[in-house]
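**Discrete fold encoding**
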Amino acid sequence: MFYHTDTTIEQLAVHRVGNKLRDEFYALSEAPLVLEDEQLTSLLLHYFLSPFAKVNEVYRLTHASGTLELNEIYHFAKSFFEGGLNFHTLGQQVCKHLFEASNHPNIKGGELYVVHLRNVQLEGLEHDAIGIFKSESKEPFLKVSPVQSSFELGYEQEAININKLDKGCVIVNTEGEDGYKVLAIDQTNRQQEAAYWKDSFLGVRVRNDAFNKTGNFLKVYKAFVDEGLDEAFELERTDKIDLLNRSMDYFKANDTFQTKAFEEEVLGNPQAAALFSDYRQQFETDYESPFGEQFDIAPGAVKKANTSYKSVLKLDKNFHIYVHGKREYIEKGFDEEKGMNYYKVYFKEEH
């Protein structure tokens, strides 16, 4: 999880970057900004960092060649964190690189903010970080001011909504040898031209460590149970809930995931295991994130995924039945006289 409650802005520089395919250019500021207004600082922290509170994916900076140092953002960040590059030069280099990466005619120009952050908390630990944020969208805002016994009404034609960050990333100064831990968002455009932010500019790929493997595997398996099994089997909702519960029990009971053991203990059916193998391979290919035949299970990822594994039968608007296990203790039937479905539940004690 990402928290910024105690985060402070150490340094801030603002530049402007245009779209070179539209004959726009970039404008570099001569020096970092000096922030003396506490309210402004608080608003900036909200604008920059609040969108990351709900971000789940943690990325790594990478390069297609496999040589991490060829990733420009990694090179700039590493040089800055190690003291070989001063902050203002960092911001200028980042702006120039973004300009070169803005190679689609639909990419909007805008302000670029490069920020040195202190006390960013990610996954329970605090670190320094580099924040890179871009504002593209402008909105008109009304301003109402009291004047004597009346009010004066004005407006700002092209203002920035602090609740709508367009693009951003936070490069956390940890695990630098692996490409750092990076959070990245693009909230303005999810079409093809938007890929430039994460791909051409940042060059990031989803982190494929134990935490991500555990979380992604559980997501893939849940999608398979909810949708993929329907192609070959006619399963009742109770059967699907049982399959989900068994997978969660497996991940809670083991420290290491092993493909063969999982297929035998959870799926228990060679045909279903073969279908799931194809299903997960498609994910591995699409996202370039192989699970391997075994990986360490991250308890934090299991706990997080558990919230989305809903073991609930919703029956019209009258009843919810929570199924935690023992599929054989619940039966489904149809009452001819009432013309309605029913469930029969067996239990020993009522609590």
